[in-house]
């Protein structure tokens, strides 16, 4: 152990230079301890901040680290914290073949099971996912993964020095950043696997790359992201490493209060709860039938916590409450609306079936119709080529379609993304890469 520690020290000095090595080492000693005490305190700080808001965080941990600190993790799990898998060891899956990814994920799952730590999701170290990872997670029956790094435009790049800017851009490339829009901040299914977007810049980028450490400044960045996600009605999965838990506590408290202060409620939840909700919501259906001219009977097949939204519609015998200005939140699941147009989407017969599935997942009811009937519907969708074949193109087309539908200025009914009238969701998540100084150095050996 001592020999390998010294090897590691000389290896690190050779590769990173003495100055960087000393700076890094100082940070490691400042944030971790030889015992669990320091991280324990940081985890408690995050857990208690969320408790004040009736919620709990989600922490992802490598199986080997869980194995060394089972009692600590079991204790925070008992307090309601969700624990997810962060690899078998802390390595980048992009450097592994699919079969290696499969083997390591399977090993991680088996350790979690042995130690009786329940789990639903997986987040890759360095958010380093590949298409092979998605196959592996699906085959091994994981409920969700949380790797897609939605980049929020909250940093003034012009104000950065060239050195800091290039470090920031390196992180964006490492995390495979995707643009932020109404579609990308929503969860989505890929087959049976649920993908929950996470958000960047994360705490590491803010603290270490951008050198922003003032709690008010950090809180103001996080609140800006919150407001933007709120406006888009999506999920803000904030990513924060518990070794910065104490440093971040002030900012976290400000963010949580800010989320509470927004006009419509924000659902503060664990990623696992969000995954379960998205599954529940995927079963919802809206049946809309014509009664006579200008009258439609609506039956919502859904659970009581569904958020049913209507715009530009008169609902018979019902005073629906206004929701976000354009939409009303309808509290009943069986009602009649007065409108000449059918308040759902019409889809051409040559549009592939998966487009209908996509619309359904987004909460938009649709029916097949002919071009001649197009004007009866809120919007006529005719996409013979579907939504594209290349993944970047697909994301663009889906984003454009969701935007177009969200901006409709005609009678329209749909399911909101979140339960109980919430406008957006906020999940506080973090990666427990190491608990002690020993873990920090073992990690470098484990991945070699
Ligand atoms: Zn990590």
Spatial shape: elongated
Number of helices: 15
| Class from secondary-structure proportions | alpha/beta
- Determine Rg (CA atoms, Å): 24 Å
Proportion of residues in β-strands:
15-25%
Ligand roster: zinc ion
Strands, total number: 23
Largest sheet: 5 strands, parallel
Enumerate the spans where pLDDT stays under 50 for 5 or more consecutive residues: none
Mean of all residue-level pLDDT scores: 92
Summarize the amount of helix as a percent range: 40-55%
Please report the distance between the alpha carbons of the first and last residues: 15 Å
Walkthrough of the structure:
The structure is a single chain. The protein is an alpha/beta fold and 448 residues long. The protein is 42% helix and 21% strand. It is built from 15 helices and 23 strands. Strands 1, 2, 10, 11 and 23 form a five-stranded parallel sheet that branches. A four-stranded mixed sheet has the order 3-4-8-7, with helices on both faces. It has a four-stranded antiparallel sheet with strand order 12-13-18-15, with no helix packed on it. Strand 3 (121-122), helix 7 and strand 4 (144-145) form a beta-alpha-beta unit. The two termini are 15 Å apart. The chain binds zinc ion. Zinc ion is lined by residues 86, 90, 125, 431, 433.
């Amino acid at each position: 152990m001592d020999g390998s520690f010294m090897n590691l020290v000389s290896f690190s000095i050779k590769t990173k230079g003495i100055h960087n090595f000393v700076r890094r080492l100082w940070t490691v000693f400042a944030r971790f301890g030889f015992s669990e005490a320091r991280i324990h305190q940081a985890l408690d700080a995050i857990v208690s901040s969320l408790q004040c808001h009736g919620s709990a965080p989600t922490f992802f941990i490598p199986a080997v680290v869980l194995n060394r600190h089972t009692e600590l993790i079991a204790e925070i799990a008992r307090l309601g914290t969700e624990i997810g898998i962060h690899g078998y060891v802390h390595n980048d899956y992009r450097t592994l073949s699919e079969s290696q990814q499969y083997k390591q994920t399977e090993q991680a799952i088996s350790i979690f099971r042995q130690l009786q730590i329940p789990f639903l999701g997986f987040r890759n170290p360095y958010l380093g996912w590949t298409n092979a990872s998605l196959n592996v997670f699906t085959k091994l029956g994981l409920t969700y993964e949380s790797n897609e790094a939605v980049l929020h435009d909250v940093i003034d790049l012009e104000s950065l020095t060239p050195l800091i800017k290039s470090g920031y851009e390196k992180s964006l490339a490492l995390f495979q950043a995707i643009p932020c829009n109404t579609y990308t901040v929503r969860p989505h299914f890929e087959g049976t696997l649920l993908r929950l977007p996470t958000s960047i810049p994360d705490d590491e980028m803010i603290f270490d790359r951008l050198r922003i450490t003032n709690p008010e400044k950090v809180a103001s960045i996080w609140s800006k992201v919150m407001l933007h996600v709120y406006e888009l009605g999506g999920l803000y999965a904030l990513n924060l490493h518990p070794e910065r838990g104490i440093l971040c506590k002030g900012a976290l408290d400000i963010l949580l209060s800010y989320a509470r202060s927004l006009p419509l409620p924000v659902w503060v939840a664990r990623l696992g709860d969000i995954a379960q909700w998205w599954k529940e919501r995927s079963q919802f259906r809206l049946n809309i039938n014509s009664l006579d001219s200008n009258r439609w009977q609506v039956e919502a097949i859904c659970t009581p916590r569904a958020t049913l939204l209507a715009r530009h519609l008169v609902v018979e015998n019902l005073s629906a409450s206004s929701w976000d200005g354009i939409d009303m939140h309808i509290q009943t699941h069986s009602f009649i609306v007065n409108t000449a147009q059918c308040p759902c989407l019409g889809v051409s017969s040559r549009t592939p079936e998966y487009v209908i599935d996509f619309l359904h997942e987004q909460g938009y009811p649709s029916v097949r119709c002919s071009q001649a009937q197009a004007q009866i519907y809120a919007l006529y969708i005719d996409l013979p080529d579907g939504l594209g074949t290349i993944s970047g193109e697909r994301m663009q087309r889906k984003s454009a379609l969701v935007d177009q539908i969200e901006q409709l200025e005609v009678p329209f009914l749909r399911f909101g993304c979140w339960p109980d009238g919430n406008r957006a969701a906020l999940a506080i998540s973090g990666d427990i890469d190491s608990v002690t100084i020993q873990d920090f150095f073992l990690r470098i050996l484990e991945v070699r």
